[in-house]
Amino acid sequence: MSAPQPAAARPATGAPVAAGRPPRVLHLAQPVEGGVARVVADLVRAQSAAGLDAVAACPDGPLPERLRALGTPVRRWPATRSPGPSLAAEVRRLARLIDEVRPDLVHAHSAKAGLAGRLAVRGRIPTVFQPHAWSFEAVGGATAALALRWERWGTRWAARTVCVSEAERATGERAGIDGRWAVVANGVDTDRFRPAPAAAVRARLAPSAGLDPAAPLVVCVGRLCRQKGQDVLLRAWPAVLRAAPGARLVLVGDGPDGDRLRADAPPSVLFAGAVADVRPWYQAADLVVLPSRWEGMALAPLEAMACGRPVVVTDVDGARESLPPATADRCLVPAEDPAALAGAVTGLLLAPDLGAGLGAGARRHVLAAHDVRHTAEAVAGVYRDLLGHRPAASRPALPGAGERAGHGRAFGPGRDTGARRTAARVQPTEHRESNHP
Questions:
Q1: Which Pfam families match (predicted)?
Q2: One domain for residues 384 and 351
Q3: Which end of the chain is more exposed for a tag (fewer CB within 10 A), N or C?
Q4: Mind listing the pLDDT tens digit for each residue in 112-161?
Q5: pTM for this predicted structure
Q6: In whole angstroms, what is the distance from residue 213 CA to residue 217 CA?
Q7: Is the dihedral of CA 304, 167, 37, 219 positive or negative?
Q8: Which alpha helices (DSSP H) does 244-387 contain, by range?
């Protein structure tokens, strides 16, 4: 990358860090929506509740609105979704913002924020990079080669690269990225995403959505883009209809492929658009499908399973790890295979008792392995490794690359694994279902 030396290379200025204050974590995000935005918001909420000083920097959009509603300080960082001619100016603005915020640690989410954040910090303070799926899988040709070259180079400025699945980490390693890895599985708010009687929820949705409450209902939640594979689902849908006449498919979300998908869709497909609350669609569904071409670990299937719904997903990074182990033969299909997708969807639609059993088991699995509280504690463990447990007053004003900065007493005793290729994994704890519906 040819971005100029950022202003952040200068020593940061500001008042001395007060002894005993909680670590300040700056979450950095590019324009994001959907799953990544929910991951960031859930993590910030959990960290603030645990006593961290969480701050966010991101462009205008749904994410900063959600964070401000949680009481999180948000600094505006104008940036585009992808690298382009504005990158150098974005890095300079970010470097000045970091000088002002004076975080103990920077946590950059997704490829563009990871690019700008690492260029702005360059190892001066601990930086966590979380790709949420690798950028070089999202593009092709020369652009993919450039993205991979950057990830190989930029990993030197990430104190930890946090992957959301072992498969995502393995993809990075196979691509030649020499990261200091930690694996922390995605989690969801299992109090917010919880089962509800499907018939009652569907009856509430039916008048505005034009649904027949008695018809089999398949729901796909995700940005309307090539990654999420809704075009593959539309190619599979005629075979589903032949086996289950009257079935309806609802695509929830918006995105750059919306017009093309609408043009290719038959009348039995409903486009719900972007919605403020996706929970009713999960709760109303007989089955939730996500036919992605690539992921790190998709959030929509976890949310659907937390709502007690069976899922069918494609065998991309994180999919096997997100499912209950015994369900792969029924719920996992190859990517870009409409026939296999249609067969799995049809099999579950025609066996509603089986689907109900799989949904109940899926809820138990998410409670045990993918509750956001487990995720937040695992990320806190990564922070502890990097920040240690020194008093805040002893923190150097500007640590050099590779040094451990900050204190972290809010986390309890710290430890430094020093592991370059050893993944730190979340260890789920038992979380019992509450009695209220």
A1: Glyco_trans_1_4, Glyco_transf_4
A2: no
A3: C
A4: 899 999 999 999 999 999 999 888 987 778 888 999 999 999 999 999 99
A5: 0.81
A6: 9
A7: negative
A8: 258-264, 279-284, 299-306, 319-322, 328-331, 338-349, 352-369, 372-387
267: containing domain: 198-369
| Same domain flag for 33 and 163 | yes
CA-nearest of 315, 318, 349, 339 to 329 is 315
Query: Is 168 contained in some domain?
Result: yes
CB distance 349 to 218 below 8 Å: yes
Residues 44 and 150 in one domain: yes
Same domain, 151 and 227: no
User: For the domain that residue 118 is a member of, what is the CATH number?
Assistant: 3.40.50.2000
Sign of CA dihedral 394, 396, 397, 401: negative
Q: Centre a 10 Å sphere on the Cβ of residue 152 and count the other Cβ atoms it contains.
A: 16
Q: Examine the domain organization and report whether 22 and 49 are in the same domain.
A: yes
**Do 170 and 268 have their domain in common?**
no
DSSP track, 314-341: ES-TTHHHHS-GGGHHHHEE-TT-HHHH
Q: What is the pLDDT of residues 196-238, one digit of tens each?
A: 999 899 989 988 788 888 899 999 999 999 999 999 999 999 9
The secondary structure of 381-402 as a DSSP string is HHHHHHHTT--GGGS-SSPPTT
The reply to whether 256 and 169 lie within a common domain is no
Q: What's the rounded Cα separation, in Å, for the pair 60 and 335? A: 34
Count structural domains, the chain: 2
